[in-house]
């Protein structure tokens, strides 16, 4: 008895498209055709198709299957490599499941950086965006310090987030003066605040320029002016005439592209 392409695919638990693809790759020999032009697959084709499907399901690349005449020709090293790749995939998926469990437990945004799930609910959208950027340009030790910083959020931070874009001079100066104290304390306690460059995963220049651009895009001019003044007060005790764009590079009042 011979089978059509559709019947062969059904028997093997695959698709007509897959069968044709295996033909095109030279994995499966073309069968004889009946007088009406229809393909006539035999038992040997079914066995070979099942072998291909089994090896593919185990993770063996089709290109490697094409070089083998028999399934028992798979080298042990190839099997070990597939096993190692699967072990790495399982480990990654288990880690992802653990992280998702933490996200659910804290009802945190799904894009919250790992380790920040319990604190992101108190952060503004701009601050959460900055955390993602910090995680890309700073190393784990720096991110650990940032976690400690944001877990002890100062009430003045909420005022900064709520500062209107048309805030007047008095409001900007008052907020900057009150932010300067916590900023100075953070600079003293956390190296990442005063010198983030030493924690860069890229060049210090790229990190500083990336953070500077992000801050300029994520915070409005009144907030940027507060940051500039707060940093000047925390550093020198008075507001300097430095370029606001330079001040913006000190993310939420930090130096060298570090966090507030």
Short description:
The protein is 62% helix and 2% strand. It has 13 helices and two strands, in the order ααββααααααααααα.
Written account of the structure:
By secondary structure, this protein is mostly helical. Helices cover 62% and strands 2% of the residues. The protein is built from 13 helices and 2 strands; from the N terminus they run ααββααααααααααα. It has helices spanning 5-12, 16-25, 43-57, 62-65, 76-106, 125-137, 140-151, 155-162, 169-189, 191-194, 204-218, 221-236, 244-248; strands at residues 32-33, 39-40. Strands 1-2 form a two-stranded antiparallel sheet. Strand 1 (32-33) and strand 2 form a beta hairpin. Helix 6 packs antiparallel against helix 11 and helix 9 (169-189) packs across helix 12 (221-236). It is elongated, with a radius of gyration of 30 Å. Mean pLDDT is 86; it is low at 241-251 and 253-260.
Query: Could you name the ranges where pLDDT drops below 50 across 5 or more consecutive residues?
Result: 241-251, 253-260
Largest sheet: 2 strands, antiparallel
Radius of gyration: 30 Å
Number of strands: 2
Total DSSP helices: 13
- Overall geometric form: elongated
Q: What is the mean predicted local confidence, pLDDT?
A: 86
- Helix- and strand-based class? mainly alpha
Walk across the major sheet and give the strand order: 1-2
What percent strand?
Answer: under 5%
SSE succession: HHEEHHHHHHHHHHH
How helical, in percent, are the residues? 55-70%
Distance N terminus to C terminus? 77 Å
